[in-house]
Amino acid sequence: MLKATLRSFLAHKGRLLLSALAVLLSVAFVTGSLIFSDTVSHTFDRLFASTAADVTVSPKKDLDEALPSGRTATLPAALAERVRQVDGVVAARADVKVNGLTVVNEENEPVGPTTGAPTLGYAWNPHERSPVRLTSGHAPRGPAQALLDSETAGRKNVHIGDALTVIAPPGSFRVRVVGIVTFTTTNPGSALLYFDTPTAQTKLLGRAGTATSISVDAAQGVGDERLEQRVAGALGAHTYDFRTAGEQAESDVEQLGGFLDVIKYVMLGFAGIAVLVGVFLIVNTFSMLIAQRTRELGLLRALGADRRQVRASVLTEALLLGLVGSTLGLATGIGLAAGLIGLMGLFGMNIDADEMQIGWVTPVAAYVVGLGVTFVAAYLPARRAAGVSPMAALSDAEVAGVGRPLRVRAVAGALVGAAGAAALAGCAVSRQTSSAASLLGLGVVLTLIATVIAGPLLVRPVIRVLGAAFPALFGPIGRMSQRNALRNPRRTGATAAALMVGIALVGGMSVASESMTASFDRQIDTTLGADFVVQNTNFQPFPQEVTDKVRRTDGVGLVVRGRFTPVAVRLPDGDRVETTAAGYDPRLDEVADITYAQGHSAAALARGHLAMDRDFARDHGVRVGGVLPVEFPGGRSAGLTVGALTDQDAAEGFGTQGGLFFGLGTLERYAPGGRDSALYVNAAAGTSDDDLRAHLEQTLDPYPQVQVRDLADYKQLVHDQIAVLLYLVYALLGLAIIIAVLGVVNTLALSVVERTREIGLLRAIGLARRQLRRMIRLESVVIAVFGAVLGLALGLVWGVCMHQVLALQGMTALAIPWVTIVLVVAGSAVVGVVAALLPALRASRMNVLAAIAHE
Predict the structure, then answer these.
(1) What is the 8-class DSSP label of residue 634?
(2) Any idea where the MacB-like periplasmic core domain is (predicted)?
(3) What's the whole-model pTM score?
(4) DSSP H stretches of helix in 91-187
C-alpha cells in the first residue's frame, strides 16, 4: 500500500501542484511573520539591554495618554547628586530626552524622518552605554550648537556647519551642527539631536534644573535589584518610578511592541485567509482525484485492501502534499522575512539580515500548519473513498457522489445558520459595545460556516438565475456551460467558496468603512463651525508661539484653543474610568455647533465644571449638578460639577470615552503645562476665506508640521485614515483572489481530465476549438460570479451588523458602497475568465480520437 501510495502521489504531482501552492502561501505568511517579529524583537532586546542603565529613576506615571497633551514629565536634575551619595552607586546622570521635535534646514525642509519614526532631542552626556559615539566635530557648547546622527545627516545631506531650526515644545530655536554621532547599535529609525545639558533643559523642557530621568550605574558587585531598593529608599519608593536595567529594557520593548504586533497580526491575517481558502482548494482537489481514481481504488479493494488502508493511503498522499508545501513554504517564509527586513531599512530601521532569528517554534509552526491544513482538508474525501464497496468502485461510479442527496448538508447548514443569525440579531439589538462585538464575531464565524455547508444547495437556484441569459447570448455553448456548472453542486460550491470568503470580508469591511466615513462627514458638517482648523500633521501639540503668531495674523477674527489631557473619573456607580478630556476657550459656540441634552456651553466651560456625553452619563448614573472626583496628571485631583450633557453622534468617535470636556481655565488650573493641539479660527469681518487661508499658510510656513485645514481638508484627513484599514482589507482580498483563481484553475483542469471522453465526443460532432474554450470560460465565469454573489450577500449582512457596533460608538450613519459592489461583481467575472485560460487552452488542444478512446 505504501508503494502504491507513493506511485499514485508521483503520478498526480502535476494535479496537486496548485494545492501545494495554497499550502506554501499559508505556511510562508506564518513563518515570515514569526521570523520577522523574532528578529526585530531580538535586535531591540539587545539594543535596550546594552544601553539601559543599571537603575533608572523616572517621574511617577499615573495616567496613560490616548491623545497627546504636550506635557513632558520631569523631575529635579539635582536628584542625581542625591543618588550619587547612595551606597553602591558609582555614577548618576541627569538625562534629558524629548520626543516629537521638528527640525528643518535653511530651505525649511524637514530633516527628521517622514515615515512615522520620531525625532528625539537629548542632553549630550556620553558614557560607556551610549547608543552613539562622536565620530566627527566636537561636543556641543552653548545654546546654538548641536550634534546630529550620521544616518539622518547622510539621508538629508546635512554637514558640519549647517544651520538647523529646532521646533521644540517650549518654542523654536536655531542651532549649528558642530558634530556627527554614529550609532553603535541598531538605529530604530529615529533622528537624534544632542545639545549640551543647560540647552536641553531650557530649550527642550522649558526650565533649567530639570531632567526626564536619572540613570544610575552600580558599583562592582552590587546587583541591580539591591541598588534599586537602596535608591528607592533614599528618594522615597512612592515618589518616583524605579526600574532595573532588565525592567527598563522590557518597558522599552513593550512600547515598541505595538508596532511589531501590527505587522505580525497583519501577516497572520494573511496566513489565516490563505489557510481558510486553501482548505477549499485541497478538499476539491482530493475529491476530484478520488472520483477520477474510482477504478484504481476499486482494484485495490478487490485485491484485499480494506477501508482503513484506502483511507490511510489518501491521507498519506495529503500528508506528503503538506510536507512538500510546508518545506517550500518555510523557505519562502524566510525570504519573505528577509524582504520585510529590507523594507524596514528603506524606512530607516536598520536591522541586520545576517542576524535573522529562526527559533524552534518557526519550523514547528510551519509543519503544524502545512500538515494540519492538508490532513483536515483531505479527511472527508478520504472517508468518502474508503466508504465505497469494491463492486461499486469497479463499476466506475463516481465516489464524489454527484447525485447523492444534500439532506444532511441542508439540516446542518440550517442549524448552524440559525445559530449565526441569532448571534447577529443579538448584536443588532445589544446596547453594550463589548457584548455586541462578541456576538458579531460569533455570528460572522457561524454564518460563514453555514454558507460553506449549505453552498451546494444554493448552486442550482442561483446559477440558473446567473446563467439564464447564457443560452440566449451564446446558444448551445451557453446552455452547456450552465449545465456543466450545475452538474456537481458540491464541487461548484467548494470552488466558489474560496472566492466567497475573500469577497465577504471585503463586503463587510467596505460597509463598515463607508459608514464610518459617512458618520464622520456628518459629524464634521454638523459640529465644526470654524472657517479653519490649525492642527499638527500627527495631532501632536505645537509650541505656544504658533498660537501667538496665528492670533496676530492678518484677517484672523477669533481663535479658540483646544487641548487634551488624560483624566480618571470616579462615577456614581463605582466605576473608575480613565479617558481623555478636552479643554476649550469660552467662545466655543462660535466655532462649533454642539447639541446639548441638558445645559449649555457656558455651564460646561465654567471654572470647576465639565460636560459629558448623555449616554455615558445615563449608563453610569451621572446627573447635571452632580460633583465627580476627577484625577489629573501629576497626582492632582478635584471635584468637578457636571454642568451639561451633550447629545453628539460621535462623542466617542476618536477613541475617547465619555465625551468629556471643560474650560481651559479648569484645565490649566489642575493640569498646567499642556500645549494647544488645535486652533479653531474664524475670519475677521471683511476677510474672505481664501485670503485668510493664504495669510495663515504664510504665517505657518516656518512650521511644516502644522497644517491649515478647512472643512473639506478635515474630511479628507479622516478619509485617509480610514482608507488605511480598507487598503489592508483589499490586500486580503487580493490574496484570497489569488488562491481562489488557483482553485478555479485546479477544478477546471481536473474537470477537463474527468470529461476527456465527453470533450472528444463534442469535438467529433462538430464543436470547434474556439467554442470549446468559450464553454469552459463561461463555466468558470458563472462559478466565480456565484461565489461573488454569495460573498457580497454575506458581507452586506456582516457590514450592517458591524455598523450596529459602530453606532454604539456614535457612528450612526449607514452607507452601502454600491460602486464597490458593482466593481466586485464585474471583477469576479474577470477572475473567472483569467482562471479558465489555461484549462480551456489545454482542452482545445486535445487529440479528438485519443480523447474518445480515453477511459
Answers:
(1) G
(2) 17-232, 492-698
(3) 0.76
(4) 150-156
Is residue 613 classed exposed, middle or buried when 0-12, 13-18 and 19+ CB atoms within 10 A define those classes?
Answer: buried
d(CA 644, CA 603): 6
pLDDT of residue 419: 92
**434: CB partners within 8 A, 6+ apart:** none
Cα distances from 220 to residues 124, 227, 772, in angstroms, run 25, 11, 85
Query: In the predicted model, what is the mean pLDDT of the chain?
Result: 83
Distance CA 110, CA 705 (A): 9
pLDDT in tens, 696-712: 999 999 998 898 988 88
Q: How far apart are CA 333 and CA 688, in angstroms?
A: 58
CA–CA distance, 92 with 766 (Å, rounded to integer): 94
H or E, element range at 61: none
**What's the confidence (pLDDT) of residue 466?**
86
The two beta strands, 171-183 and 132-137, are antiparallel
Report how far residue 638's alpha carbon sits from residue 626's, in angstroms, rounded to the nearest whole number: 13
Cβ-based burial of 624 (10 A; exposed 0-12, middle 13-18, buried ≥19) = middle
Q: Is 210 helix (H, G, I), strand (E, B) or coil?
A: strand
Q: C-alpha 44: how far from its chain's center?
A: 22
Task: Please give the pLDDT value at position 526.
Answer: 79
Distance in angstroms (rounded) separating the CA atoms of residues 253 and 45: 7
Q: Outline where 640-768 has alpha helix (H).
A: 664-670, 689-699, 711-754, 756-764
Give the end-to-end CA distance of the chain in Å, rounded to a whole number: 24
Query: What per-residue string of b and e applies to 351-382 under the rule 16 or more CB within 10 Å gives b?
Result: beeeebbbeeebbebbbebbbebbbebbbebb
DSSP 8-state code for residue 635:
G
pLDDT for position 652:
39
Sign of the C-alpha dihedral computed for residues 704, 706, 708 and 710 taken in this order: positive
Low-confidence ranges of the chain (pLDDT < 70): 5, 9-16, 18, 114-116, 253-264, 288-289, 291-299, 301-302, 345-350, 352-353, 385-406, 538, 648-656, 732, 750, 854-855
Dump pLDDT digits (tens) for 190-248: 889 999 999 999 999 989 999 999 999 988 888 889 998 999 998 887 888 898 888 87
* Residue 157 near residue 207, CB atoms below 8 Å: no
The backbone torsions φ and ψ at residue 57, rounded to the nearest 5 degrees and listed phi first, read -105, 125
Would you call 393 helix, strand, or coil by DSSP? helix
Asked if 831 and 737 touch (Cβ cutoff 8 Å), the reply is: yes
Cell of residue 339, nine digits:
524582504
Count of beta carbons in the 10 Å neighbourhood of residue 852: 16
Q: Residues near 623 by Cβ (< 8 Å), separated by ≥ 6? A: 617, 642
Here the cell at position 227 is 541598588
Of the candidates 128, 124, 104, 125, the one whose C-alpha atom is nearest the C-alpha of residue 114 is 104
Q: Are 56 and 250 in contact (CB under 8 A)?
A: no
Phi, psi of 198, rounded to the nearest 5 degrees? -60, -40
Grid cell listed for 568:
480618571
The contacts of residue 164 (CB under 8 Å, 6+ apart) are 103, 104, 105, 111, 146, 148, 158, 174, 175, 176, 177, 193
Distance CA 276, CA 408 (A): 22
